[in-house]
Q: What sequence folds into this?
């Protein structure tokens, strides 16, 4: 059993030995188990009610795939292109995604449990009704200009990520660990951020969010030197 700890969260990760995996180049007609996928191109393919289990996928082109239903379990995804992909109703558990591009990805009704995203690009990503059923962490990820709506991500870890211009709508992010993340123009309802962990350096951005949320009018003290 392999685990990693990020902040206060421990994530159960896949423990794969490439020598125990079968080389796979073509997309099979049925579920994919115990496969080693290297530099394959499945761009734009459509799959439904499909399961990928115990696989290592590296250097692959999975851009613009449409995957509806099914599960991704116990997998390692490394330096893979998932830009423009659409995953709907997929369960992702005990997986690590490292150094991969997920620009413009759409995740809808996706369930995450024991998932680590490390040094990945999620810019312009759309997350709708994504839920964290267990430990989930994003480390050194770029999530700029994304739109997350109706997500349930309490306790998620977003460490040292760029959250600039990320917009959250009706998302639960309470108890999240945002330490070290860039919050420039980060937009979220304050009541959905209860109990988040921040560093002192991030407090000015939190202040900005509070001022925007409360429509506070910050003015110069024009009364100085005059009668009050």
A:
């Amino acid at each position: 059993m392999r685990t990693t700890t990020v902040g206060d969260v421990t994530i159960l990760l896949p423990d794969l030995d490439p020598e125990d995996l079968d080389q796979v180049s073509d997309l099979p007609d049925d579920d994919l188990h115990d496969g080693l996928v290297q530099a394959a191109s499945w761009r734009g393919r459509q799959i439904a009610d499909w399961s990928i289990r115990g696989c290592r996928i590296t250097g692959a082109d999975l851009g613009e795939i449409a995957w509806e239903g099914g599960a991704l379990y116990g997998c390692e995804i490394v330096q893979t292109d998932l830009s423009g992909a659409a995953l709907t109703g997929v369960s992702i558990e005990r997986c690590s995604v490292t150094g991969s591009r997920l620009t413009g990805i759409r995740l809808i009704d996706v369930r995450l449990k024991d998932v680590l995203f490390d040094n990945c690009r999620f810019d312009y990503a759309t997350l709708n009704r994504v839920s964290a059923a267990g430990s989930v962490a994003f480390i050194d990820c770029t999530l700029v200009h994304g739109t997350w709506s109706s997500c349930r991500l309490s306790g998620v870890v977003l460490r040292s990520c760029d959250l600039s211009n990320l917009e959250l709508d009706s998302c639960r992010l309470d108890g999240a660990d945002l330490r070290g993340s860039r919050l420039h123009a980060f937009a979220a309802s304050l009541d959905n951020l209860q109990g988040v962990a921040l560093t002192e350096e991030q407090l000015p951005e939190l202040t900005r969010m509070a001022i925007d949320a409360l429509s506070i009018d910050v003015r110069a003290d024009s009364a100085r030197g005059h009668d009050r």
